[in-house]
Amino acid sequence: VQLQACGGGLVQAGGSLRLACAASGRGFSGYGVGWFRQAPGQGSRFMTAISGSGHQTYYEDFVKGRFTISRDNAKNTAYLQMDKLKPEDTAVYYCAAREDRDYATYKYWGQGTLVTVSS
């Protein structure tokens, strides 16, 4: 599966953005999707994930209540709705996919989309 993330941009603090992760290839519903981000000068950080069916989601504490992950398997697309954005959310955001089974690793990565939050 190939992934392409889009939807990044410049937004003021307190604003919202919705990122999309479009997948090509077959069997998208058989892959869990995760979102990661990498802030300037820092390593990659996992934020949230969704199961292949969309029925299960997981959030790290630092995005819980502000970010929402979802997917539309009919459109082969996953989304990350980001609300109440803060300047510290400035980063390159990546989506990744893994086989929807226990212990699978993220093998497929999108190219990243830059989100800049101004104060």
Please render the helix and strand layout as text.
Elements: E1 2-6, E2 9-12, E3 17-24, E4 31-38, E5 44-50, E6 57-59, E7 67-72, E8 77-82, E9 91-99, E10 108-109, E11 113-118
Parallel strand pairs: 2-11
Antiparallel strand pairs: 1-3, 3-8, 4-5, 4-9, 5-6, 7-8, 9-10, 9-11
Overall 3D form: globular
Main sheet overview: 7 strands, mixed
Radius of gyration: 13 Å
The chain-level mean pLDDT equals 96
Q: What is the strand tally?
A: 11
**What structural class do the secondary elements suggest?**
mainly beta
Query: Count of helical segments?
Result: 0
Name the poorly predicted regions.
none
Give the topology string: H per helix, E per strand.
EEEEEEEEEEE
N-end to C-end Cα span: 37 Å
Fraction of helical residues: under 10%
Kindly estimate the percentage of residues that lie in beta strands according to DSSP. over 45%
Describe the model.
This protein is mainly β and 119 residues long. Helices cover 0% and strands 54% of the residues. It has no helices and 11 strands. It has strands at 2-6, 9-12, 17-24, 31-38, 44-50, 57-59, 67-72, 77-82, 91-99, 108-109, 113-118. The strands form 2 sheets. Strands 2, 4, 5, 6, 9, 10 and 11 form a 7-stranded mixed beta sheet that branches. A 4-stranded antiparallel beta sheet has the order 1-3-8-7, with no helix packed on it. Strand 7 and strand 8 (77-82) form a beta hairpin. The N and C termini lie far apart (37 Å). The model has no long low-confidence stretch (mean pLDDT 96).
